[in-house]
Amino acid sequence: MLSERLLSTVVRETTKQYLKLDSCTDARMPAPKPGQPYMLYMHVPFCERLCPYCSFNRFPFSEDRARPYFANMRKEMMMLKELGYDFDSVYIGGGTPTIMLDELCETIDLARDTFSIKEVSSETNPNHLIPSYLEKLKGRVQRLSVGVQSFDDNLLKQMDRYDKYGCGQEILERIAEASPYFVSMNADMIFNFPAQTEDTLVHDIEMVIESGASQTTFYPLMASPSVERSLARTVGKVDYEREGRFYEIITSLLTDEVPGVYTGPEGEQGEKGLFNFGSAWTFNRRPVLARDVQTRPAEQRREYVKLQPGSAPEMVTLVETDAPVAEAPVASQPMIDEYVVDYEEYPAIGSGGITYLGSSLFVNTFSVKDYNAAIESGRMSMMGKTTFNLRERMRYRFMMQLFGLRLDKKAFERDFGVSIDRGLPAEMTFMRACGAFATDNEYELTLTAKGRYLMVVMMRQFFIGVNNLRDQARAALTGEERELLFG
Fold it and tell me: Which stretches make up the Radical SAM core domain (predicted)?
């Protein structure tokens, strides 16, 4: 697709220009703005296995390394309190946040005691979806996001996840068992693996539906320079030419109408199927009200529904009524799918965390050793900083809000002192020429199907740019920590 290739090139080159780290010696983050809502991001950089596609800050797990780290992250959290911050939401990413459950629970409890926390989102891996973990997370975490990546056993083996996390069927069963513990259970998936075919992708989508997860995120595989070699060695070279077709399959199977399945009124993006769009690559399950699949040929019975939380997925029989007949595992309220969409500004604590406040982006040291030393000396852990000019801030707003499926034109003009057409004329001309906008009036922009895919492309390239920023921070590692990552 010509528009995809052009957009990829433009975003790649522009991110190279403005995502460059300068040295930062600030002892504290900037203070909060009165009335500005903030989310707190925490980073836990420890994993049992280092996945070949991951560019986030992560190290092989060691209890001796992790326990003091959690203690210092709690100290850094209190530094934010001293600066005057309050938070209604926490997102804990990694790494594997649940790798030391007692430390994670203590950290969440302190956050809830200190701030006005209403919801906590955390990432995890499939091997932690077991009763002893789930019982402790219940009530503490509202949204749990499990890194599945694929249910295909061959792909799991390529990624070195099969032996550690189990086969696809085992992962599916664990998600089904874990879902009732949380307001929202998200299945994190990756598409466009070199060895992935359309059939294996369809199977992944069917397994997500069968699992009962209330939310799923399908990220395109991102070949950042730091992981390009390991990706090529383990799963092969990424082919972006078929990415659009794969995205079309995902959105069609998740959001298009399923014959004989009624999910209520059409969604805001025209969805009539089992899921609504939460962002360009996140999908939230819709309540299923009635179905008539029993009378259809067996080969057409591809819908799976989890009738009650905790029950096994099974087919639904003929129903000749509009009355609700099945309780789908649907979150009672929208949960965070991409915190960069829900919160424009957010401080981050922990080694490798990335903060965005005002016009500045701060990167915390990637060295756990240096992180601990900074916190114990009474300093926060920023090691690098990049500052966005007005145009770059406008581009960031444009990208994040449209990735979240709607841009508020009036708010844009209020915040930047210029209309979006005057502030970003080239971007608006390109998107209009591509037929990206479903709504383009004086109040808002919304997206067509093509527009949503272009936002996937834009965010893919932006995140590759952010990963390059991480590489700049990672390059400062020395000694044992460098050996742990690079050998």
Answer: 32-256
What spatial distance separates the first Cα and last Cα of the chain, rounded to whole Å? 39
373 contacts: CB under 8 Å, gap ≥ 6: none
Q: Are strands 437-440 and 444-447 parallel, antiparallel or unpaired?
A: antiparallel
Boundaries of domain holding 223: 21-288+339-346
Rg of the chain's alpha carbons, rounded to an integer? 22
Count: domains in the chain: 1
**341-350 pLDDT tens trace:** 788 899 999 9
Query: Would residue 225 count as lying in a domain?
Result: yes
Please report, for residues 214, 255, 334, 423, the alpha-carbon distance to residue 267 in angstroms, rounded to integers and kept in the order given: 16, 9, 14, 31
Which of the residue ranges 161-175, 407-421, 424-438, 454-468 would you say has the lowest mean pLDDT?
454-468
CATH number of the CATH domain containing 191: 3.80.30.20
The C-alpha atoms of residue 102 and residue 443 are separated, in whole angstroms, by 48
Would the pTM of this model clear 0.70, i.e. be above it? yes
Question: What does the pLDDT read at residue 283?
Answer: 97
| SS3 of residue 370 by DSSP | helix
Interior angle at CA 252, CA 338 and CA 455, nearest 5: 40
- Local confidence band at 487 (pLDDT 50, 70, 90 cut-offs): very low
With 50 as the cut, is the pLDDT of residue 262 above it?
Answer: yes
Phi, psi of 33 (to 5 degrees): -85, 135
